[in-house]
Specification:
homodimer, 206 residues, mainly alpha, DNA-binding
DNA sequence: CGGGTTCTTGAGCGAACGCTCTAAAATTGG
DNA sequence: CCAATTTTAGAGCGTTCGCTCAAGAACCCG
């Protein structure tokens, strides 16, 4: 988008992707509102003018951060698991087990960026709140779609409710993200994942 | 504490408890950092001077709010269930089922104050972050203690881990609170609660 | 009633907020 | 080499932040 290089004018002296990564880490740690533009410019190593020229305002920078996060391995593991695993149970088992490893990983801020940053948005910032809520609720819709497919394939009993199961796993994932933020270890989260999987409806097609 | 009335001097012209309730609602909705003193004074119907005289600074007002919330029916239902129910399963079943009703109740802001407001705290405010994290992790310790008692009473198989179960239910409760904030209905949360209870170890002493 | 005490009011402090502007610097096209 | 274009650095805009303070009002005690 802004990638067409070798134009006219003074070239950019900073690495746009690196600056975005720095911003991601900060937003991930502190959330949207609690991260100031001053902290951002310092972490990104640029001056306010450059930030606004390259990324628009704080809000659009954040949205680009979320977008970028969603394409990164850490942010996309759920979608990947849903696509790659042959059965729904295998997919959700992999999601929870990977979340147990990824969320407390000290290589990056704890928990899920979308889940954490989302809660840090004021009611005043109505559109930002809606943007993030829709992101999370969209995840639930994907869960439900996968479970519905599984039910048609006979992986789930007729009595099971894809919608209810999707809501349940969504709540567990959000809970695990929060627990990671509160200092839960990978070992503890792994136990949580196994217990959560025990809720899978009888006739479990493992 | 500040309750010894009929002292000397000009009497307070506002209802301290009512003001605290107004502050509670605001913090509950927006979280700690996102709620400004200006918004607080307006909602409480008092001027900044009165707020600081009656409650100390913003931080101690918030702690009093959390304290007060923990003593209210909505904030104390978990502890009550753990004490009143004869078996651990009955206690956790009641906790999840009541959470499904209480968290989305439109009579107050969605979710649990401690869980929601907590996530809105910056890393900068280190002691506030620690205060809230300890509150939540303290809840987990209470869960674990109840489950350990249950295991000694033979309600839980030897193989079950009270610590892991406590972490699991803690994550589920936090997840349900967040889902309520994202607009989940009581019906949806009730289904989540039932699914979560299916994780109770075999030989379930219902 | 007068002195002591506490509370209310309203102005406003210094700092931080998101953001903008100007001038200089660095590049390309002609 | 010059004009056009784009980015940089840095000052600083207007607003809001948490919080304080001086002045006056409302009560109790003696």
């Amino acid at each position: 988008m802004t990638d067409t290089r070798a134009k006219r004018g003074r070239p950019r002296t900073f690495d746009r992707a690196a600056a975005l990564t720095a911003a991601t880490r900060l937003f991930w740690e502190r959330g949207y509102e609690a991260t100031s533009v001053g902290e951002l410019t310092e972490a990104m190593g640029i001056r306010p003018g450059s930030l606004y020229a390259a990324f628009g305002d704080k809000k659009s920078l954040f949205k680009e951060v979320v977008d970028n996060y969603g394409r990164s391995p850490v942010g996309a593991f759920i979608g990947v698991a849903l696509e790659e695993e042959p059965t729904a149970f295998a997919a959700f088992a992999r999601i929870l087990r990977e979340a147990a490893v990824i969320y407390p990983d000290p290589a990056h801020p704890a928990g899920c960026l979308t889940i954490s940053a989302a809660t840090n948005v004021t009611t005043q910032d109505a559109d930002m709140e809606a943007y993030l809520r829709d992101l999370r609720n969209g995840n639930l819709a994907v869960f439900e779609a996968r479970l519905r497919t599984a039910q048609r394939a006979g992986e789930l009993p007729e009595a099971a409710s894809p919608r209810a199961l999707a809501a349940y796993f969504g709540a567990v994932v959000q809970g695990m993200s929060q627990r990671a933020r509160d200092g839960a270890t990978a070992a503890e989260l792994a136990e949580t994942a196994e217990l959560a999987l025990a809720a899978w409806p009888a006739g479990r097609a493992r």
